[in-house]
Amino acid sequence: MRGISHKVRPAIFAAFISLLAACGGHGGSSSSGSSTATPAGGVQLQVVSFGDSLSDVGTYAPLASAVGGGRFTTNPGQVWAQDVAQYYGGTLSAAYTIDVGHELSPQGGFGYAEGGATVATPANQYDFLTDVIGNVEMPVNQQVSSYLSAHGSFNSGQLVLVWAGANDVLRAGALPAAAQTVQTAATTLAQIVGQIVQSGATHVVVVNLPNIGLSPTGLAASDGGATLSQLSQLFNNDLNSALQADGLQSKVIEVDSYTWLDQIIANFQANGFTVSNTGQACDPSKTPDDTSLLCSPATYVSANADQTYMFADDLHPTTHLHALFAQYVEQQIAASGLGH
To answer: pTM value?
Structure first.
């Protein structure tokens, strides 16, 4: 899988050239010096991340930066995986990026998660933001294969983060037919986790799905999110059962984002939010394609919306919600006996 690249259709190229010309393209990357002291987490770990837009640290940043975007959150804020990496004394950059050349090309980072990715379904079967980025995202099984092709194995000095399945649920359709799609994705993800463990990883975090039915997308559905909630639960139950059946539960750190998000929403004001899951920080009338990937302070509904809203767009967390989730993950890792 090393060196894989995908071409994006010429129309996309033309659209972004126009966008760059209109907005004034600008590059932008954040970097920080390596930690010389003991990190806040109490142990130095290199973070490797696999998944979808919830963990994407900048796959599409070279394009999205033209309008101040770059990640699926309230830019320029970070996603949870970056916060966790910093907690353990490192940084997390994208393993692959797509630029104005419209090829997905390797960059050497360890953030393999890509917006739009499913567990194992080829990208070209879907139309995720094709008017912006095309069908280029790697599913998680390919992300892991790409890592192993480049690096051979995992090691005990790494913390491997795995969070996927949301796109499988969102694209599964209606019940009862959707059940098989979701169950297959969950059992496949467990198999991928097994591959990660068998390839030398000793610290693996597996995050289940949040209650997608409680996202603004879910609330806006004709059934108020009931189907998405049911499919989220089905995925989580099957993932848990598959991890258990495969003898992996004792070898991974499971993080329950479903229960966590429910509790945060129920107590949103106590957690520093003024708007819960009923609104979005990125103004749909100002944010291109109404996606947090292209959201910036210029498109916020208010100056501090990245801190006062829970959701950036209709699916993705704000900077504040990402930070809170990172803290929760760090607590679960510490409870497992690793660091503090």
So the answer is: 0.88
